[in-house]
Amino acid sequence: MARRYSGPMHARQSLPLLWLLSDARNDAGLEQALERLPQGSGFVFRHYHLDPAPRRARYETLCAKARTRRHLVILSRADWETVAAWDADGLYGSPEHFAGAPPEGKLWLATAHDSEEMQRALALGASGIFLSPVFASASHPGGETLGVFGFRVLAQQSPVPVIALGGMDEARARELDWPRWGAIDGLASTKVA
């Protein structure tokens, strides 16, 4: 049974601290990574590299694995109808691709890279924000990063939970000293305590 979001005032306590994001580069190890995550973590299914039918099939496999560990399952590049049809717990995406307030019991986890995007996401009612890139990452090679100071300045302004993303792993989470973080490579290839 999926954990359901119960509203913005409860979001700080209810959103998981640890988030695994799927990608073509970590696909082969996702079942094992989902098993290693602490029970009740979060999983964002992206898999942009797949066509619709294989994407749905891969989602079903990974969602079933995630549910056995009581992870929240969030769907990217979708709309609310798809979120409902696929029985996901919510939607992941930028304010530019967001359409409408989350339905009752669903989450919208926004992506933001700066103050302007973060404020837009908050104005549209984001349940939480993936703020990135904190550190250099394979997803944004050569791109500017927020760094520890830049991330903390922005994150502390948010009334909703902020999830650190971009080059994150356990060592970087300790360096950042931020409890809520997510990763693609940093969780798929290493053992999580």
UniProtKB/TrEMBL annotation:
Pfam families: TMP-TENI (PF02581). GO terms for biological process: thiamine biosynthetic process. Residues 28-176 form the Thiamine phosphate synthase/TenI domain. This is Thiamine phosphate synthase.
